[in-house]
User: What shape does this take?
Amino acid sequence: SAEERGWEILARRGRVGANDEVFIEFAHKSRLLGMPKQIIARITDEGETTFLDLRSQSQFISHDLGSNAATIREFIADIDFNLVGQIVR
Assistant: This one.
């Protein structure tokens, strides 16, 4: 979860189950050099399907050498692992 990763919630808009879109903004520091990052999660409910869009941005450097993409890939992999075998109806 985001909490287990040390991601701090900065802002939230919408509620799961009540709104079609929920936005959550997180602050996080990279493992390498402790550089601050901003992570935005958008959850979109389209009835039969729910989409998760994640974006990560380093705040003070112009190129992160792939660390933002790695942050998102690791988080998605954890979500996939935790959802294996679960069916939501």
Observations:
- The helical segments are 67-83.
